[in-house]
Amino acid sequence: MQVSGLVASILSQKGGSVYSIAPDAMVYDAIQMMADKNVGALLVMKDEKLMGVISERDYTRKVILKGKLSKQTPVQEIMTSPVITVTPNHSIDECMRLISEKRVRHLPVVDGEKVVGVVSVGNLVNWIISAQNATINQLQNYISGGYA
User: Fold this and answer.
1) Reading across the β-sheet that carries 20-21, which strands appear in turn?
2) Which secondary structure element, helix H or strand E, spans residue 30, and what is its range?
3) If you average pLDDT over residues 102-128, what whole number do you get?
4) Backbone phi, then psi, for 94, in 5-degree steps?
């Protein structure tokens, strides 16, 4: 099933909030910020340039399991890089394909060199569910004769 829609539509609905941290910040500070903002990942940025992504998954696999200390480990040591990005003009289908193939959960959205937002697997799934519900409602209205 193909779902129509562009990343720009998701960003206009959810907003373009971007939470980021510097590459030389400590992992502990990144985890604290994720908890405070209730997000699962942060963009790693230096001078407005996207350097990487740090996620809860990075923390568990590259700090906890390796016996490192989060207050002594810089973000740049465990961040995921290079980053897989999309543009506002990417389709929802393309994003879902990327997330599945690359096994990532967050896609930074860039317009030229500027980061304009982030879409998560949750954002994409919610969009797909909403699109499916709208289609079901239209079909039910059509079948019952209420479709104009």
Assistant:
1) 20-21, 41-46, 49-55
2) helix 27-37
3) 91
4) -60, -40
Q: What is the CA radius of gyration of the chain?
A: 18
Q: What's the CA gap between 97 and 116, in Å, rounded?
A: 21
Alpha carbon 67 to chain centroid distance? Answer: 27
Neighbouring residues of 72: CB distance < 8 A, sequence distance ≥ 6: 26
DSSP E strands in 17-113: the ranges are 20-21, 41-46, 49-55, 106-111
Separation of alpha carbons 49 and 77, rounded Å: 17
Cis-peptide, bond into residue 82, ω within 30° of zero: yes
Burial 99-130 (b: 16+ CB within 10 A, else e): beeeebbbbbbbeeeebbbbbbbebbeebbee
Q: Which residues, 6+ apart, have CB-to-CB distance to 148 below 8 Å? A: none
The pLDDT tens digits for 41-88 are 999 999 999 999 999 999 999 998 899 999 999 999 999 999 999 999
**According to the model, what pLDDT value does residue 132 have?**
73
At 5, the amino acid letter reads: G
